[in-house]
Request: fold
Amino acid sequence: MANYRVQWPPFTANIKGLAIVLFTLWFASVMVDPLGDFVGQYMLVSQRAVIQDFQVWTLLTYSLWHADFMHLLFNVLVLWLFGGEIDRRWDTVRWWRFNALCALGGGVAVVLSQLIFQTFHPTLGYSGAVMGVVAAFAWQNWDRTIHLFFFPMKGKTLLLVFIALDVFIVVVGREPISVAAHLGGMATGLLIVSDWWRPRRWKLAHKRYKHKKRRKKFQLLQKDPESDRYLN
Reply:
């Protein structure tokens, strides 16, 4: 019988430091009432905070605070499971910049979704950045088989699993999570690691599309010169 060996990801210095900061901030906000009130008024993101009260900084600061211990513990665990290998490969500047941009993407998604659905609930938690890290892990293992709690799957399947979990929790309605922050952070992470955020990539893709369209038109004209009148 073959032995199955579990290989845990590295618990890097960056993740340790972030976990200590997040746990300290959460504990302080729970134990010190004035701090908790301050966080509720000035640190959480919502369309009211950003647009009406001009608290633009909340697009980032919301990620530093958590509703309860389990909320925080889940975020740190997922960050460690999927971010350990990435953090070990990347340099420190790239790691923190990526986390900050994914958190920002989650904050922007929260505001946009609240504008569309006319809701005003404040959002908090590091989930936007965490989902960006999950997306980066999935992209780097897109067609490679990985194991999620002993279940084999590819990176692209892993991404779908996380999206499905978000949708399921919202449908069941048991947990007040912000799917907008999750999906916003995830989309931001994918754009960054895939390099599709660069305007040069979009321009190149557009050129390829135009070239393909011209080639198709030329082929049609070769077969039927009269078809030109029907082509745009």
